[in-house]
Protein backbone atom coordinates (compact mmCIF):
# COMPACT_ATOMS: atom_id res chain seq x y z
CA UNK A 1 0.00 0.00 0.00
CA UNK A 2 1.17 3.54 -0.78
CA UNK A 3 1.16 6.15 1.96
CA UNK A 4 1.33 9.94 2.19
CA UNK A 5 3.51 11.13 5.07
CA UNK A 6 1.94 13.93 7.08
CA UNK A 7 2.60 15.93 10.25
CA UNK A 8 2.95 14.63 13.79
CA UNK A 9 -0.48 13.92 15.30
CA UNK A 10 -1.12 13.00 18.91
CA UNK A 11 -4.80 12.18 19.31
CA UNK A 12 -3.90 8.58 20.20
CA UNK A 13 -0.91 9.40 22.43
CA UNK A 14 -2.87 9.05 25.66
CA UNK A 15 -4.35 5.71 24.58
CA UNK A 16 -0.92 4.34 23.60
CA UNK A 17 0.45 5.35 27.01
CA UNK A 18 -2.53 3.74 28.77
CA UNK A 19 -1.79 0.43 27.06
CA UNK A 20 1.93 0.59 27.88
CA UNK A 21 1.18 1.46 31.52
CA UNK A 22 -1.16 -1.52 31.76
CA UNK A 23 1.45 -3.88 30.33
CA UNK A 24 4.38 -2.68 32.45
CA UNK A 25 2.87 -1.26 35.64
CA UNK A 26 5.08 1.83 35.18
CA UNK A 27 3.96 5.43 35.40
CA UNK A 28 3.87 7.49 32.20
CA UNK A 29 7.20 9.24 31.71
CA UNK A 30 9.12 6.97 34.07
CA UNK A 31 12.37 5.13 33.32
CA UNK A 32 10.78 1.76 32.55
CA UNK A 33 11.94 -1.52 31.02
CA UNK A 34 9.37 -3.20 28.79
CA UNK A 35 10.64 -6.64 29.87
CA UNK A 36 11.17 -8.11 26.41
CA UNK A 37 14.95 -7.74 26.23
CA UNK A 38 17.26 -5.39 24.34
CA UNK A 39 17.90 -4.98 20.63
CA UNK A 40 15.64 -5.40 17.61
CA UNK A 41 14.09 -8.70 18.74
CA UNK A 42 13.03 -7.33 22.12
CA UNK A 43 11.63 -4.19 20.49
CA UNK A 44 9.58 -6.27 18.04
CA UNK A 45 8.16 -8.39 20.87
CA UNK A 46 7.18 -5.21 22.71
CA UNK A 47 5.58 -3.65 19.62
CA UNK A 48 3.61 -6.87 19.03
CA UNK A 49 2.21 -6.78 22.57
CA UNK A 50 1.15 -3.13 22.37
CA UNK A 51 -0.40 -3.61 18.92
CA UNK A 52 -2.38 -6.62 20.12
CA UNK A 53 -3.77 -4.72 23.13
CA UNK A 54 -4.79 -1.79 20.94
CA UNK A 55 -6.58 -4.12 18.52
CA UNK A 56 -8.43 -5.76 21.40
CA UNK A 57 -9.79 -2.29 22.19
CA UNK A 58 -11.12 -2.01 18.61
CA UNK A 59 -8.38 0.36 17.43
CA UNK A 60 -6.68 -0.09 14.06
CA UNK A 61 -2.99 -0.63 14.87
CA UNK A 62 0.03 -2.27 13.28
CA UNK A 63 3.25 -1.42 11.45
CA UNK A 64 3.61 0.19 8.02
CA UNK A 65 5.82 -2.76 7.11
CA UNK A 66 4.78 -5.66 9.33
CA UNK A 67 7.51 -6.95 11.63
CA UNK A 68 8.13 -10.42 13.01
CA UNK A 69 10.35 -11.67 15.83
CA UNK A 70 11.98 -14.34 13.68
CA UNK A 71 12.57 -11.83 10.86
CA UNK A 72 14.26 -9.55 13.39
CA UNK A 73 16.58 -12.39 14.36
CA UNK A 74 17.49 -13.07 10.74
CA UNK A 75 17.85 -9.38 9.91
CA UNK A 76 20.50 -8.99 12.59
CA UNK A 77 22.87 -10.88 10.29
CA UNK A 78 22.36 -8.39 7.46
CA UNK A 79 24.14 -5.13 6.83
CA UNK A 80 22.62 -2.26 8.83
CA UNK A 81 21.18 -0.54 5.77
CA UNK A 82 19.10 -3.58 4.88
CA UNK A 83 17.75 -4.45 8.32
CA UNK A 84 14.64 -2.24 8.34
CA UNK A 85 13.45 -3.56 4.98
CA UNK A 86 13.97 -7.16 6.08
CA UNK A 87 12.47 -6.85 9.54
CA UNK A 88 9.73 -4.22 9.34
CA UNK A 89 9.41 -0.60 10.40
CA UNK A 90 10.72 0.43 13.81
CA UNK A 91 7.52 2.13 14.99
CA UNK A 92 3.86 1.30 15.41
CA UNK A 93 1.02 3.00 13.54
CA UNK A 94 -2.30 3.77 15.22
CA UNK A 95 -5.29 4.96 13.20
CA UNK A 96 -7.24 7.98 14.41
CA UNK A 97 -10.50 6.35 13.36
CA UNK A 98 -11.32 4.45 10.18
CA UNK A 99 -8.32 2.78 8.60
CA UNK A 100 -8.44 5.01 5.50
CA UNK A 101 -7.71 8.13 7.59
CA UNK A 102 -4.40 9.23 9.17
CA UNK A 103 -2.36 6.69 11.14
CA UNK A 104 -0.25 8.24 13.89
CA UNK A 105 3.33 7.02 14.32
CA UNK A 106 4.86 6.05 17.68
CA UNK A 107 8.35 4.68 18.21
CA UNK A 108 7.64 3.05 21.58
CA UNK A 109 10.85 1.12 22.21
CA UNK A 110 14.45 2.03 22.94
CA UNK A 111 16.36 -0.42 20.75
CA UNK A 112 19.59 0.00 22.68
CA UNK A 113 18.40 -0.65 26.20
CA UNK A 114 15.02 -2.34 26.25
CA UNK A 115 13.25 0.73 27.63
CA UNK A 116 9.75 2.06 26.98
CA UNK A 117 9.50 5.34 25.08
CA UNK A 118 6.40 7.19 26.21
CA UNK A 119 4.17 9.16 23.86
CA UNK A 120 3.78 12.87 24.63
CA UNK A 121 0.53 14.64 23.82
CA UNK A 122 1.15 17.75 21.78
CA UNK A 123 4.88 16.99 21.28
CA UNK A 124 6.73 17.46 18.04
CA UNK A 125 8.65 14.87 16.07
CA UNK A 126 11.60 13.05 17.65
CA UNK A 127 12.99 13.09 21.18
CA UNK A 128 11.70 13.48 23.74
CA UNK A 129 8.88 11.04 23.34
CA UNK A 130 7.70 8.37 20.95
CA UNK A 131 5.74 10.66 18.63
CA UNK A 132 6.51 10.34 14.92
CA UNK A 133 4.93 11.68 11.72
CA UNK A 134 1.53 10.43 10.55
CA UNK A 135 0.85 8.30 7.48
CA UNK A 136 -2.35 8.30 5.40
CA UNK A 137 -3.07 5.55 2.85
CA UNK A 138 -3.43 6.75 -0.74
CA UNK A 139 -5.84 3.95 -1.64
CA UNK A 140 -8.77 2.38 0.17
CA UNK A 141 -8.43 -0.28 2.83
CA UNK A 142 -10.65 -2.41 5.02
CA UNK A 143 -10.72 -1.96 8.77
CA UNK A 144 -9.04 -4.98 10.35
CA UNK A 145 -10.48 -6.96 13.21
CA UNK A 146 -8.63 -7.77 16.41
CA UNK A 147 -6.25 -10.06 14.52
CA UNK A 148 -5.50 -13.71 15.20
CA UNK A 149 -5.79 -14.93 18.75
CA UNK A 150 -2.33 -15.68 20.16
CA UNK A 151 -1.56 -19.33 20.72
CA UNK A 152 -1.99 -20.21 24.40
CA UNK A 153 0.54 -22.32 26.27
CA UNK A 154 -1.11 -25.67 27.14
CA UNK A 155 1.10 -26.18 30.23
CA UNK A 156 0.00 -24.30 33.36
CA UNK A 157 2.61 -21.87 34.72
CA UNK A 158 4.97 -21.81 36.49
CA UNK A 159 5.71 -25.34 35.22
CA UNK A 160 7.49 -28.12 37.06
CA UNK A 161 10.15 -30.80 36.58
CA UNK A 162 12.42 -28.25 34.85
CA UNK A 163 15.68 -29.35 33.26
CA UNK A 164 18.47 -27.74 31.23
CA UNK A 165 21.36 -28.93 29.14
CA UNK A 166 24.44 -27.25 27.73
CA UNK A 167 26.51 -28.57 24.84
CA UNK A 168 29.49 -27.48 22.70
CA UNK A 169 28.46 -25.40 19.71
CA UNK A 170 31.79 -25.12 17.86
CA UNK A 171 34.92 -23.26 18.92
CA UNK A 172 34.46 -21.70 22.35
CA UNK A 173 30.68 -21.44 21.93
CA UNK A 174 28.16 -23.27 24.12
CA UNK A 175 24.47 -23.76 23.38
CA UNK A 176 21.80 -24.14 26.10
CA UNK A 177 18.32 -25.70 26.02
CA UNK A 178 15.48 -25.49 28.54
CA UNK A 179 12.83 -28.14 29.21
CA UNK A 180 9.62 -28.06 31.25
CA UNK A 181 7.70 -31.01 32.69
CA UNK A 182 5.15 -32.67 30.38
CA UNK A 183 1.81 -32.96 32.22
CA UNK A 184 0.40 -35.29 29.52
CA UNK A 185 3.20 -37.86 29.99
CA UNK A 186 2.71 -38.68 26.31
CA UNK A 187 5.39 -38.56 23.64
CA UNK A 188 4.94 -35.73 21.11
CA UNK A 189 2.13 -34.14 23.15
CA UNK A 190 1.26 -31.33 23.64
CA UNK A 191 3.66 -30.60 20.75
CA UNK A 192 6.00 -32.62 18.51
CA UNK A 193 9.35 -33.17 20.18
CA UNK A 194 7.99 -33.59 23.71
CA UNK A 195 9.20 -36.61 25.63
CA UNK A 196 7.18 -38.54 28.17
CA UNK A 197 8.62 -36.49 31.04
CA UNK A 198 9.61 -33.13 29.56
CA UNK A 199 9.03 -30.79 26.62
CA UNK A 200 11.68 -28.60 24.93
CA UNK A 201 11.05 -24.86 25.02
CA UNK A 202 12.58 -24.18 21.62
CA UNK A 203 10.89 -21.82 19.15
CA UNK A 204 11.79 -24.27 16.39
CA UNK A 205 9.40 -26.83 17.93
CA UNK A 206 6.39 -24.78 16.91
CA UNK A 207 3.92 -22.17 18.22
CA UNK A 208 2.95 -24.04 21.39
CA UNK A 209 6.58 -24.42 22.45
CA UNK A 210 7.18 -20.75 21.67
CA UNK A 211 4.12 -19.66 23.68
CA UNK A 212 5.26 -21.67 26.70
CA UNK A 213 8.81 -20.35 26.41
CA UNK A 214 7.60 -16.75 26.34
CA UNK A 215 5.23 -17.38 29.28
CA UNK A 216 7.40 -19.41 31.65
CA UNK A 217 11.05 -18.99 30.59
CA UNK A 218 11.63 -15.69 28.76
CA UNK A 219 15.28 -14.94 28.06
CA UNK A 220 18.24 -16.66 29.77
CA UNK A 221 20.16 -15.06 32.62
CA UNK A 222 23.71 -16.44 32.83
CA UNK A 223 25.25 -16.73 36.30
CA UNK A 224 28.86 -17.33 37.36
CA UNK A 225 29.09 -19.21 40.66
CA UNK A 226 30.91 -17.05 43.25
CA UNK A 227 34.30 -18.47 44.18
CA UNK A 228 34.33 -20.94 41.29
CA UNK A 229 36.92 -19.03 39.26
CA UNK A 230 37.03 -16.02 36.99
CA UNK A 231 35.80 -16.21 33.43
CA UNK A 232 34.31 -13.96 30.80
CA UNK A 233 31.08 -15.29 29.31
CA UNK A 234 28.79 -13.38 26.96
CA UNK A 235 26.24 -14.05 24.20
CA UNK A 236 28.04 -13.23 20.93
CA UNK A 237 24.70 -12.39 19.29
CA UNK A 238 21.98 -10.40 21.09
CA UNK A 239 19.40 -12.29 19.04
CA UNK A 240 20.65 -15.76 20.09
CA UNK A 241 20.90 -15.45 23.86
CA UNK A 242 20.90 -19.22 24.45
CA UNK A 243 24.35 -19.39 22.85
CA UNK A 244 27.33 -18.04 24.82
CA UNK A 245 31.06 -17.69 24.27
CA UNK A 246 33.64 -18.36 26.96
CA UNK A 247 36.36 -15.89 25.99
CA UNK A 248 38.68 -16.14 29.01
CA UNK A 249 39.28 -18.00 32.27
CA UNK A 250 37.27 -20.84 33.80
CA UNK A 251 34.33 -21.04 36.20
CA UNK A 252 31.10 -22.78 37.15
CA UNK A 253 28.25 -21.45 35.01
CA UNK A 254 24.48 -21.75 35.44
CA UNK A 255 21.37 -20.11 34.05
CA UNK A 256 17.72 -19.29 34.75
CA UNK A 257 14.90 -17.63 32.83
CA UNK A 258 13.72 -14.05 33.20
CA UNK A 259 10.12 -15.22 33.69
CA UNK A 260 10.93 -17.04 36.93
CA UNK A 261 12.05 -20.53 35.90
CA UNK A 262 14.39 -22.17 38.45
CA UNK A 263 18.16 -22.02 38.24
CA UNK A 264 19.93 -24.77 36.33
CA UNK A 265 22.70 -27.05 37.52
CA UNK A 266 26.25 -25.67 37.41
CA UNK A 267 28.51 -26.55 34.50
CA UNK A 268 32.32 -26.40 34.36
CA UNK A 269 33.26 -24.06 31.50
CA UNK A 270 36.57 -22.63 30.28
CA UNK A 271 38.13 -20.73 27.40
CA UNK A 272 39.16 -23.75 25.37
CA UNK A 273 37.89 -25.99 22.58
CA UNK A 274 35.53 -27.50 23.55
CA UNK A 275 34.55 -24.89 26.14
CA UNK A 276 33.21 -27.30 28.78
CA UNK A 277 33.84 -30.65 30.42
CA UNK A 278 32.04 -32.95 27.97
CA UNK A 279 30.32 -36.11 29.21
CA UNK A 280 30.00 -39.28 27.06
CA UNK A 281 26.48 -38.07 26.19
CA UNK A 282 28.01 -35.08 24.39
CA UNK A 283 26.60 -32.64 26.96
CA UNK A 284 28.49 -30.41 29.35
CA UNK A 285 28.78 -31.49 32.97
Mean pLDDT: 83
Low-pLDDT regions:
81-87, 143-148
Strand content: 25-35%
User: What's the structural domain tally?
Assistant: 2
How far apart, in Å, are the first and last alpha carbons? 54 Å
Which sequence of SSEs, written as H and E, runs from N to C? EHHEHHEEEEEEEEHEEEE
Number of helices: 5
Q: Per the principal axes of the C-alpha atoms, what is the gross shape?
A: elongated
Please provide the count of β strands: 14
Structural class: alpha+beta
- Helix amount: 10-25%
Describe what you observe in this structure.
By secondary structure, the chain is α+β, with helices and mostly antiparallel strands. It has two domains: 3-137, no CATH class; 163-270, no CATH class. The chain has helices spanning 13-24, 39-56, 69-75, 80-87, 207-217; strands at 3-8, 61-62, 92-95, 103-106, 109-110, 115-116, 131-137, 163-168, 173-181, 198-200, 220-224, 231-234, 243-257, 267-270. The strands form three sheets. Strands 8, 9, 10, 11, 12, 13 and 14 form a seven-stranded antiparallel β-sheet that branches. Helix 2 runs antiparallel to helix 3 (69-75). The longest helix has 18 residues, at 39-56. The protein is elongated, with a radius of gyration of 21 Å. The model is unreliable at 81-87 and 143-148 (pLDDT under 50).
